[in-house]
Amino acid sequence: GAFTYRKKPFLLVDLPGTYSILAHTVEEQIARDFICFGEPNATIVVLDATCLERNLNLALQIMEITSNVIVCVNLMDEAKKKKITIDFPALEKELGVPVVAAAARKGEGLDTLRETLYQVSTGARKSNPRQLIYSPAVEEAVKELLPNIQRLVDHKLNPRWVALRLLDGDKAFIESISRYLDLQL
């Protein structure tokens, strides 16, 4: 969909629903590749307020790729019915990215989401996403790979995330990044 906010045009791309972007399914691969290579100005991760813990994994994975993340916790009306409460300031502090509460069917929180999207996509609001720390062996391997990866990828890809995916040995990702970087492997 498309809309204009504060005289700035926005194009929204709805990616396939998924709980992960580690690309075990075609949907996960499509979502991962768009976030990595589609050069979005911002990525809104919509999470279900009624099962937030299960959904946070996806947000953390996306935050490893890009700092331009907004977490939208949707279905707040359903969470309220189930007596689920969420400490949004604490969640935002813990994640290091903007977190917006919404009940999209009722239109609640959408004005805040539009404003937050505007701020993140224009660079007016910077985030410092929480980065996961892996085992010492993985962190050492990432450290060794980083100088070579930084020479290959431009500023649009997070070299740490690329190193982690290469260590995974994900053939689909290696093919995708090879196409993106126009490498002959």
Characterize the structure shown.
The chain has 185 residues and is α/β, with parallel strands linked by helices. Helix content is 49%, strand content 12%. It has 8 helices and 5 strands. The chain has helices spanning 26-37, 52-65, 76-81, 88-95, 110-122, 136-152, 159-168, 171-181, and strands at 2-5, 8-11, 43-48, 69-74, 99-101. It has a 3-stranded parallel beta sheet with strand order 3-4-5, with helices on both faces. Strands 1-2 form a two-stranded antiparallel ribbon. It is globular and about 50 Å long.
What is the subunit organization of this protein? Answer: single chain
Distance between the termini: 37 Å
Q: What best-fitting shape do the alpha-carbon axes yield?
A: globular
The low-confidence runs, each spanning 5 or more residues with pLDDT under 50, are: none
Helix share, percent: 40-55%
Question: Which sequence of SSEs, written as H and E, runs from N to C?
Answer: EEHEHEHHEHHHH
Largest sheet: 3 strands, parallel
Radius of gyration: 17 Å
Tell me the structural class: alpha/beta
Count of helical segments? 8
Number of strands: 5
* Overall pLDDT metric: 91
Numbering strands along the chain, what is their spatial order in the largest sheet? Answer: 3-4-5
Task: Report the portion of residues in β strands.
Answer: 5-15%
Layout: helices, strands, pairs:
Blueprint (H helix, E strand, L loop, with lengths): L1 E4 L2 E4 L14 H12 L5 E6 L3 H14 L3 E6 L1 H6 L6 H8 L3 E3 L8 H13 L13 H17 L6 H10 L2 H11 L4
Parallel strand pairs: 3-4, 4-5
Antiparallel strand pairs: 1-2
Helix pairs in contact: 6-7
